[in-house]
Amino acid sequence: MSIVEQTREGDVLVLTIHNPPVNAFSPGVPEGLHAGLDAAEGDEGVRSVVIIGGGRTFIAGADIKTFDLPREQAPDLRGFITRLDAFPKPTVAAIHGTALGGGLEVALACTYRVATKDAQLGLPEVKLGVLPGAGGTQRLPRVVGVPKALEMMLSGNPVKATEAQQLGLVDELVEGDLREGAVAFARAHADARPLPRISERSAQADPQVFAAAREGIKKTHRGQLSPGLIVDLAEMAVTRPFQEGWEAEARLFMQAKDSPQSRGLRHIFFAEREAGKIPGLTRDTPTTEINSAGIIGAGTMGGGIAMNFLNAGIPVTIVETAQGALDRGLAVIRKNYENTAKKGRMTVEDVEKRMALLTPTLNMEDLADADIIIEAVFENMDVKKDIFTRLDAIAKPGAILATNTSTLDVNEIAAVTGRPESVIGLHFFSPANVMRLLEIVRAEKTSDSVLATSLALAKRIKKVGVVVGVCDGFVGNRMIHRYGDEARKLVEEGAKPEDADAAMNALGLPMGPFQMSDMAGLDIGYAIRQHQAKVRGEPEPDGWLDRIVEMGRKGQKTGAGIYDYGEDRRPKPNADVQALIEAYRAEKGVQPRALNPQELTERLVYSLVNEGAQILDEGIAQRAGDIDVIYIYGYGFPPYRGGPMGYADEVGLKNVVAALEGYGQTPAPLLKRLAQEGKTFAGYDRERGQS
Ligand code: 3H9
């Protein structure tokens, strides 16, 4: 079948795009559409044209895979849109699924738009670090008004067809068969003259709107290039003739597309989709239905995990050892929901509906029917082994037995059961009802079916699941431990904690290493360091940060950690802490030196990169892209930096190695090898067929 199929329905020519899975505007699509317009133009019997998507959707946008092609080889979306806009006969976009980016831009250049009720329309380019580059910035404000257009283009979020109709973006909602409805609409409007063209309309707006948008993006899109360009272009839609805005848009689109930020965001777009693919697992790998969940532990973690299931409509039985703890856990869940309802993001009925799906119990035997059971008690191997021994006796055959451990050996936990194939790690990140990352820890004997079911479950509860192997800290925490070590070293050598944090804030991380430690609780890191020293047979740790914890400063929760916290919860440096650090350096004979922001940034980020390379080499992570996804969704690494590994690629691995060596550190063998060969992590993923 041709990529664009032409069918005559009487006097209407229907052009159907067949470019699965999402009808992106790939090579071949513009040629097919031009051929369709040629046919329509040359045939007097054709009085109007319908453009429709075959399969599950209208056009989902420009083909992102072609962004790096030389301009001559990239599909010419703008050229097609210019022709479509000027076409002498009425054209109708028939939209189902999603009309996104270049897809919506094609629709906006048609004379009319009709859609199914559940279709979605949007300009999500900002999420890829670019801007609508085929007329969207000039046409959308002319249709829906500047404030709504700015909202759509800056958030990147689509609107539903019903709202689009109210906005004038869709002319008619089609009940029943879309194609039939669109053909009827096209026929009914075949004689409309002059043809209503959006490019001929004008847009007005109070100049204040643009000033407010520029202020707003300082908060919502700090440090990013494309949002500012979008506002500039929306302003041109009001102040300049269409043609001028259209030409400026082309220039600014190229500028945004060629920026490291857009490369970073596109890398993440594909990395996120790759993360769900596991070699060896096929579409036929059997999965089981998860219709009920059991959770052991109603603490912060257990409660947060339970909320994910309740939100997805999956009933949860939650187990505690004492009534008080159970009541407290339930009260926290209820309060979380009530707070959401107070903010208007949920109705009171929704709160009750979710709470009704939750069964509290003190009896572990009540988990006998659960399809999945997740243990979320504190990090102690003996306690976990005891729980899994009991679960082995209680759980029905085929139930998934999961541990939420963040550091312990899942193989060792699985080994106490008679069904290690059913055991897996599901590592949620705190607060578990908010953070999107789920590390899926594949133990030695975890079955493919349990792994595939866990991946499908992650999607269902709206998490980004990334499969990792067993090691201390898995991927995320193992790397963050190295980063924490480096951060403490920087301070030991002479940096102020606030300087290290500021360096990471400047890179776009909402929290630097010390702000993050204070939020997580300093006692947690303290306990981990104690535990690791014990395991390694090293003396008890006695760093400056350990001493701060020993002063009783445990972080935000005690109002005092590395920083002081007042009512506003903003970190303020503390003189006692500074004095303690100075005394510590003196005791160790360290002559403090000034560390510049470049050194702070490089040493912190490259500590992640170096450990990441080691993790990749060991096969604990399958792909460098997986590590990036983990850092974005679990640790707040800014997506527009491409994650730590993507960032290293952008800097150049040779430069990363030179910097590490310059700081007296040893680059991981894989990092060194790739640098010597002039390669990138992304290339390494591709070479191994992992991307
Ligand atoms: C643009 O239009 C620029 C213009 O303004 C100007 C140009 C001059 N290209 O997400 P899924 C692939 S910028 C290439 O798993 P879902 C995707 O990688 C573009 N490939 O499915 C995956 O491949 P695989 C503006 C694309 O149902 C497969 O399709 N548009 C594209 O969960 C399925 O995707 C966007 O930003 C693409 N545009 O969600 C839309 N889109 O199977 C981006 C998808 O090999 N796309 N693929 O892993 C989306 O938001 C979602 O994919 C969508 C479907 C909602 C469409």
TrEMBL record:
Annotated organism of origin: Deinococcus budaensis
Protein name in the entry: 3-hydroxyacyl-CoA dehydrogenase
Taxonomic classification: Bacteria, Thermotogati, Deinococcota, Deinococci, Deinococcales
Residues of the 3-hydroxyacyl-CoA dehydrogenase NAD binding domain: 293-469
GO biological process, one term: fatty acid beta-oxidation
Pathway info: Lipid metabolism; fatty acid beta-oxidation
Cellular localization per UniProt: Peroxisome
Record's keyword terms, sorted: Fatty acid metabolism, Isomerase, Lipid degradation, Lipid metabolism, Lyase, Multifunctional enzyme, NAD, Oxidoreductase, Peroxisome
Enzyme Commission number(s): 1.1.1.35
Quaternary data: Monomer.
Reactions that this protein is recorded to catalyse: a (3S)-3-hydroxyacyl-CoA + NAD(+) = a 3-oxoacyl-CoA + NADH + H(+)
Residues annotated as domain 3-hydroxyacyl-CoA dehydrogenase C-terminal: 473-565, 601-679
Coiled coil: none
GO molecular function, one term: (3S)-3-hydroxyacyl-CoA dehydrogenase (NAD+) activity
PANTHER family tied to this protein: 3-HYDROXYACYL-COA DEHYROGENASE, PEROXISOMAL BIFUNCTIONAL ENZYME
Keyword Oxidoreductase annotated: yes
